[in-house]
Task: inverse folding
């Protein structure tokens, strides 16, 4: 039982157990490699190392209350999932589309970088891809939308900024972590692209209908 394993821990480990359980409940994902902005390089996370050490005990603890703790040793991602589909965070529309675009960029870029599990991009590139895909309302986005989306995804360890300064709505260097593979599967990407094609078809049909309507109106006027 988990409590037997817990009682065998040192006082320091018990403190880390409590702290990291609360961290996972808040952030959902934890990644093995994080970027140190002051050093400008990626290095292993001490928190990830500790969770990995306490993993079995934490896994049994969460299991009792309906949570599933998972670990992907290949990509270096720890995930906490509610088995009853509760405690879900609902992203707004822009954040959701920003997330999907980051997933596309991750898929396209992870084989090209020095670290094939972390993809480097920036805010401008993400927003431009959103525009190219037709995801932006009238081809534009607001500073608040960009800022909120970046902060939200960073909170859940999906992305991280490369600067030591605060998130900037006008642009940041952005690292996309492999945790994005857990939140959006390959099938999710395929479903999204299918939905985008349907949206484009609907928009094209609507524009055609408007042109016909305008032509009919002009003919009636004459």
Result:
């Amino acid at each position: 039982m988990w409590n037997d394993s817990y009682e065998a821990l040192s006082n320091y480990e018990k403190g880390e157990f409590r702290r990291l359980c609360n961290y996972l409940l808040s952030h959902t994902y934890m990644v093995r490699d994080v970027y140190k902005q002051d050093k400008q390089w990626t290095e292993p996370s001490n928190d990830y190392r500790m969770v990995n050490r306490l993993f079995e005990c934490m896994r049994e603890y969460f299991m009792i209350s309906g949570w599933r703790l998972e670990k992907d040793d290949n990509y270096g991602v720890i995930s906490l999932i509610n088995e009853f589909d509760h405690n879900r965070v609902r992203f707004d529309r822009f954040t959701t589309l920003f997330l999907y675009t980051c997933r596309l960029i991750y898929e396209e870029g992870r084989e090209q970088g020095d670290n094939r599990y972390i993809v480097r991009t920036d805010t401008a590139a993400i927003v431009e891809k959103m525009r190219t895909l037709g995801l932006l309302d009238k081809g534009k986005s607001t500073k608040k939308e960009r800022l909120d989306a970046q902060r939200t995804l960073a909170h859940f360890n999906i992305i991280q900024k490369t600067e030591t300064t605060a998130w900037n709505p006008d642009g940041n260097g952005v690292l996309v972590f492999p945790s994005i593979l857990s939140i959006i599967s390959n099938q999710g990407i395929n479903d999204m692209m299918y939905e985008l094609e349907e949206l484009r078809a609907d928009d094209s049909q609507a524009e055609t209908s408007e042109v016909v309507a305008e032509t009919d109106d002009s003919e009636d006027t004459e």
Observations:
- The radius of gyration is 22 Å.
- The chain has two domains: 2-82, 93-201.
- Residues 101 and 130 are 6 Å apart (CA to CA).
- Residues 93-201 form one domain.
